[in-house]
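Action item from last week, closing it out:
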Amino acid sequence: MSSTDPFDVSRRNTRVAAYCAAGFVAMIGAAYASVPLYRAFCQLTGFDGTPRRAEQASATTLERNLVVRFDANVRELPWSFRAQQTSQTLRIGQTGLAYFTVTNNSDQPVTGHAVYNVTPQLAGAYFQKLECFCFSNQTIPAGKTIEFPVVYFVDPKFAEDFDTRGKSEVTLSYTFFPAQDAAPKAAQAPSALGGMPKAGL
């Protein structure tokens, strides 16, 4: 009978251990990557009622009106957060401008990150945002109030989709949570709007 070489057994055990360690590291990496990847997927597809991020405004505006309602919530943050308007009525494809206000009620800077969705969920694929405070962490200085604009439009395909064409209103909802990844800059209202007026749409 041939005996097993102890050196070969040790080498095989070392190789198996290395494979297991590599697999464990890969699983940990996948777990950390899953949240931003899921968020990016939702923004790209509108899945789960997530509004999509757009690079430019719609080239088409329909005659049909749509009511957009706004909702603001805070979880585990010493902040007051509200929408300055309850709703807006605009034509499908028209660019809308809404304002939200955040006040830090604590005595130290606090960083939060807003998550958002649209109801009904099927409308998320057509609700597109050009400018939004939810794209990055926001740090509010102690005792300060900051105003944030949201620039958005509803894709005209909303009126063609069998599941959404009969809808007359949608709700854009935000919830601020404590930011998980720190090192943010102090929050400032986006300057890209170039002083756009607050006038109703």
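Closing note: The chain is about 20% helix and 35% strand.
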